[in-house]
Amino acid sequence: MSQKPTLPKGTRDFGPAQMGKRNFIFSAIKQVFEKYGFMPLETPAMENLSVLTGKYGDEGDQLLFKVLNSGDFLSKAKETDFAAGSKQLLPKISEKGLKYDLTVPFARYVVMNRHDLALPFKRYQIQPVWRADRPQKGRYREFYQCDADVVGTNSLICETEIILMINEVFAKLGIKDFDIKINHRKILTGITQAIGATGKESDFCVAIDKLDKIGIDKVLEEMKGRGISEEATQKALPILALTGTIEEKIAHLKNILQNSEEGLQGIKDLEEILETLKTFDLDQHHVDFDVTLARGLSYYTGAIFEVKVNNVSIGSVSGGGRYDDLTGVFGVPDLSGVGFSFGVDRIYDVMEELDIFPEEARTSTEVLIIHFDDESKKYGLSVLNQLRKVGIKSEIYPDSAKPKKQFDYANKKNISYTIVIGSDEIATQKLSFKNMASGQQEKLTLEEILKQLSKH
RNA sequence: GUGGUUGUAGUUCAGUUGGUUAGAACGCCUGAUUGUGGUUCAGGAGGUCGUGGGUUCGAGUCCCAUCUUCCACCCCA
To answer: What is the mean pLDDT of residues A175-195?
Structure first.
């Protein structure tokens, strides 16, 4: 009885072709992170549920994958727990969960190791995370995040450096048309004060975050639905419709927020970030100030970012922001951090949609050795040894097979060159070196072949 | 979590109001070609129709459940 194997919902295999492309993205990100002084960190796939729960809101808790206790997981549960429902039963049968993002495990790490850390601590982390979400295009239940965070400094240089890193990574990847949207949590707070909806900040944010998706009318409707007064929504209207350059928007908002100390502080932060950016003289920084950017995660308290690639059907590919008190829930207050994350799976989808993966992302074997009989196969092994000694990615067809089969193998693996060896080649010491793309073939000594290959 | 959608050969898809033995293209294998792949030609293999029930004389087709896919909402990378 054989059964067809299947994958769990929302998970994927990555074949060699995909991995070549994925690694291309990973290494671009890694190089940039390290160039900016971030050090790698890895944390376990599982965390204790006490670490994870309550950090992402009720919605987030629901999306956590819980791991059943090992052994007799029912042993601690009583009938009364079972009768009381899942919420009561859960802690009795599950103590661990798969991590939901990289920021909370990072905060946990900082707290556990704070005496050893050189503050400010800069780390990057590239690992899979899991969410029990319903999958869709660009949304998976297992996906990779690439986080870089700095903790232990309030300096806005960090924010500027995030903008620089995003620019560098996208330049490496060849993504040209994108916007780094930036906003500030304090500006959002300021706006709610200015329009007379103080305290309604999170309702306000949830509503305006949808602006580009559902349009201004529906946003105003949603605000009313969330208990923001008619008068306030009317006041919000011109603010949400702000246009012009970053400088113009800032000037305008300064006026609107003149009575909000918090709002003005947010503006000041933004100005400083942009001012610092100037000293790095980028041709184009892709930054756009977007007052409607809110972002869901509630722990952000300062600048917030989101990156959108234009003219593709994928949502944001990167996001982040500053959080003043991330480690507070673990008993270490007043440690400010700022960080952001690249969504590799989405960047992959974007690059696939734009068809901009370079040839180098499709690395394969460079040379296949093809042989006709046992003698030439044996001779081929010594040739193979020479190729590998100089670092050429090479392999020999391991079985004795017809040349057609061996050539088919080379085609299928997209191998650029073949070296064909038979009795003639052994006798003359001149090997048949074939370019698989052009079909051209010439008889060369091994040394000449090595010279040819080193050019590529 | 709510509502909808999808599933037929390795892959992409046909398959009539329920009616004989479920098709095509591409891919795969063999040969034409025993020292040369991509092209061409000839032949061949490959399907518990997602899974489990039900209705019917008869189900790929209708009904129910379940899994999966994609989409919208919620939320998010």
So the answer is: 90
Strand B: list positions under 7 Å from protein Cβ. Answer: 1-3, 28-31, 33, 35-38, 48, 50, 67-77
User: Is A252 exposed, middle or buried, given 0-12, 13-18 or 19+ CB atoms closer than 10 A?
Assistant: middle
Distance CA(A63)–CA(A51), nearest Å, equals 15
**What's the domain count of chain A?**
2
Query: Is A4 contained in some domain?
Result: no
Interface TM-score (ipTM) > 0.90:
no
User: Is A149 marked as binding a ligand?
Assistant: yes
Calpha distance A178→A184 (Å, rounded): 20
Q: Tell me whether residue A172 is in a domain.
A: yes
Which A residues between 98 and 137 have a beta carbon under 7 A from any strand B atom? 101, 131, 133-137
Instruction: Specify whether A315 is located in the same domain as A431.
Output: no
Distance CA A125, CA A427 (A): 56
Residue A328 CB: number of other CB atoms within 10 A?
A: 15
A17, A20, A86, A163, A413 from A368: Cα distances, Å: 18, 19, 58, 44, 10
| DSSP-derived pairing of the beta strands A431-435 and A417-421 | antiparallel
Query: Are both A156 and A186 inside the same structural domain?
Result: yes
- How far does Cα A187 stand from its chain's mean position? 27
Last residue of a domain, one of A335, A354, A373: A354
Q: Give the model confidence (pLDDT) of A336-361 as tens digits.
A: 999 999 989 889 888 887 888 888 88
Instruction: Please write the tens of the pLDDT for every residue from A396-435.
Output: 999 888 999 999 999 888 899 999 999 999 999 999 999 9
Catalogue the E-assigned strands of A204-350: 287-289, 303-309, 318-323, 337-343
- The answer to whether strand B lies under 7 Å from the CB of residue A432 is yes
* CA-to-C1' span, A404 to B32 (A): 14
Read off the pTM: 0.88
| The two three-digit tokens of residue A124, written as one number | 């990057």
